[in-house]
Hints:
InterPro entries: ACT-like_dom_sf, ACT_dom, Asp/hSer_DH_NAD-bd, HDH, HDH_cat, HDH_CS, NAD(P)-bd_dom_sf. By secondary structure, the protein is an alpha/beta fold. The protein has helices spanning 13-24, 26-33, 64-69, 85-96, 106-123, 139-146, 161-173, 177-186, 195-198, 201-215, 234-242, 304-320, 361-371, 413-426; strands at 4-9, 37-43, 59-61, 75-78, 100-103, 127-128, 152-158, 225-226, 245-256, 259-270, 282-289, 293-300, 346-356, 376-381, 401-408, 411-412, 434-438. Strands 7, 8, 9, 10, 11, 12, 13, 14, 15, 16 and 17 form an eleven-stranded mixed sheet that branches. A six-stranded parallel sheet has the order 3-2-1-4-5-6, with helices on both faces. Helix 5 (106-123) links the parallel strand 5 (100-103) and strand 6 (127-128). The protein starts with a strand and ends with a strand.
Amino acid sequence: MEPLKLGIAGVGTVGGGLLELLTTNGAHFANIVGREIRVTGISARSREKVRNIAIDGYQWFDDPVALAKDPSNDVFIELIGGEDGVAKAAVEAALQAKKHVVTANKALLAKHGIALAKLAEKNGVSLNFEAAVAGGIPIIKTLREALGANRVRRVYGILNGTCNYILTQMQNDKRPFADVLKEAQALGYAEADPTFDIGGFDTAHKLALLTSLAFGTKVAFDQIHVEGIQTITEADIEAADSLGYRIKLLGVASESETGIEARVSPALVFKDSAIAEVSGVTNAVAIEGDFSGSVLLVGAGAGAKPTASAVAGDILDVARGLIVPPFVTPVAKLKTHKRAKLDQHYGSYYVRLALYDKPGAMAAVAKSMSDQAISLESIVQHRPQTLHAPRTAPQRSKDKAQPVIIITHETTEEAMRKALAAIEKDGNVTEAPQMIRIEEL
Ligand code: HSE
C-alpha cells in the first residue's frame, strides 16, 4: 500500500512531540495499519529555531497555506493554534483540496467547527481533533465510537491542567494564587495568554466541543456560562477543606427538557469523589450514558508527548480509512443548542461572607435566606488560620469582619442570587459575598 504522506504545520511543543513519536514508533505503525506513515512537508514560524528534533530532512514551506494545498501530502496536520488567521486559512485550504485534516486547535473548532465540519463532509474527508480536548485522554473517540450508542445525560470534567495545578498547589502548600500561576507558566502548561486558562475560556473551548459531541448539537461556545478561578482565595480553599470538600474548576454540560446547561466554574466536590483526587496538571473527563452508566477517563491534559499521542491516534484512523462526520452527527442533522436558564440551576451552594461582628448581623443573613425559602445545612463562623490553635476568649470587634461560611440545601440559583443581593444591601458585609456551586458527582 502507498505510504500515507503528512504535511505538518507548526513545530512547537506538540509538533516536536509528534515528529519524535512518528520516528520512535514508525515501524509499529507500518505493522498495525499496513502502510508507512511518512512526513513529507513541514511549515513553522521559524526554520532556524533551535529544536530538539531535526527538521532538515523534510521539504520546507514558508507558508502553511501552500503546504495545505501542496499535492505532495495527503493529510494536513494543523498545530499552529489560534481561532482565526493562518490556522483557519490553512485548514480550509486543505479541506478544499480534499485532504484529511488533523488538528489540536480547540479555539479554531470552538469558533468555526461547524463550518469546517461542513466543508470536510462536503469533500468526503476527515477532520479529526482528539488533541483539542484534554490532551492525551481519548475522549473524542470515546464519545464518537465506544459510547456512541448511548444517550448522554451529562458530561463533565477537569479540562485545564493549569487551573488544576494552581488549585492543587494552593491547597497543598497554602500558597497564594499569583505565586503558583508563575510556576505553572514556567512548567509550560499555561496558554500563551494565561487569562485563557485562569478565566475558564480554555475549559469553555473544550466543553463547547464535548457538548456538541455528547448531545448532537451545533458547537455554541457563546452559550457557555464561564467563570474562572481568579476569585478563589486561600480562605475558600481552607474553609472547603475543613467542611470535607475540594475546589476544582469544572466544565459541566447536562441536558434536560428546558435545554442544555453548559457552564465552566469553580465547584466544591466531595473529597472522597473520584474527581477530587485528580490533582496537579492531570485532567479528567466523565460521561454519564444511559446504558454505559458513568465512565471516567483520567490522564495528562497537556504536554508534548500525551498531546502528540492524541494527534497520532487521529492519523492512524486516516491511515486505516476510517472517515466519520467530525461531530459524529452529520452537520445537517445537528440540533441548535438551546440554552437552559442558569437561574433555574438546582443544587446546593457554598457561601463565604465577610460579616460585621455585631448583634443581629447573622440573624439578618438567616432572614434573607429564609425569605427565599433557602434551607441551610450549616453556618460556621470560620476562624481562618486559627482552626487548630488553642481557643481563647472570643474577641468581638464591631469594625472587623468575620468570615462566615454557609452551606445550603438544594435551591435554585435565582433564589441564591436574590438572597445574596439582599445580604449585600443590608450593609452587614464588607465585601461582595462569595458563592460557589456544590457539584454532586
Ligand atoms: N493550557 C492548557 C492547560 C493546555 O493548561 O490544560 C492544554 O490545552
